[in-house]
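2024-03-11 09:14:02 INFO worker-7 job=invfold-0412 stage=load source=structure_tokens
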């Protein structure tokens, strides 16, 4: 992963997101931007609702470049794998594979999972140590996937968040252990409203929290941020 920030790839990706977003979303509002640190490391813990729009909002509407940890176990061909991995390197986005999904992936082998997870963890921690903003979707799966359906069962009640995984905590601990500054965890909620063929999106940041904050508390806050506004 390149150490030159902000990279040409990131600038291009943000410009594309600013062009793409208004063509697919009727309106976007982002509250609480004052909670995103103006400098230094930050780990955004975001709700995962839409497989494309969530990331586009982060890229287009935040004042700082964002490096999103992405899972590529959904790709279906060797050519697509090469193309997507090249794009992630271009933007300095850490890549992981979800162990429960890679068994069904046509383009990856199950025995590659560990190496990708280790490398993704290392790359995300390195970005934090370099003072960058990293975003993680701890649910692991969106509520709306590329086919317009929910690919994984949602938790009953509330807004239907999936249980948060602990990968974000491993990233923060490694960044701090390897000599980086303390990593603030910044919760990020997303609320979607369907408008015909489009969406209205209301996003909100919460106040930064210490990396030791419990997973249950972080999930509660992200859920509350996703129901307000």
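2024-03-11 09:14:09 INFO worker-7 stage=emit residues=229
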């Amino acid at each position: 992963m390149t150490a030159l920030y902000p990279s040409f790839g990131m600038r291009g990706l943000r410009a594309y997101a600013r062009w793409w977003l208004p063509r697919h979303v009727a309106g976007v509002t982002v509250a609480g931007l004052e909670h995103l640190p103006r400098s230094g490391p930050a780990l955004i813990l975001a709700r995962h609702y839409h497989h494309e729009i969530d990331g586009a909002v982060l890229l287009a509407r935040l004042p700082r470049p964002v490096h999103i940890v992405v899972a590529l176990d959904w790709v279906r061909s060797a050519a697509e794998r090469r193309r997507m991995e090249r794009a992630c390197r271009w933007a300095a986005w850490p890549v992981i594979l979800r162990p429960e999904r890679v068994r069904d992936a046509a383009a990856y082998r199950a025995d590659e999972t560990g190496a990708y997870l280790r490398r993704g963890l290392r790359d995300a921690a390195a970005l934090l140590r370099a003072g960058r903003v990293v975003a993680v979707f701890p649910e692991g799966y969106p509520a709306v996937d590329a086919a317009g359906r929910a690919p994984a069962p949602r938790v009953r009640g509330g807004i239907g968040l999936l249980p948060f995984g602990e990968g974000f905590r491993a990233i923060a601990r490694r960044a701090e252990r390897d000599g980086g500054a303390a990593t603030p965890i910044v919760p990020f909620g997303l609320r979607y409203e369907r408008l015909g063929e489009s969406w209205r999106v209301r996003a909100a940041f919460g106040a930064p929290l210490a990396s030791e904050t419990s997973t249950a508390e972080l999930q509660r806050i992200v859920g509350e941020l996703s129901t307000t506004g």
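2024-03-11 09:14:09 INFO worker-7 stage=report msg="Residues 8-24 form the longest helix (17 residues)."
2024-03-11 09:14:10 INFO worker-7 job finished
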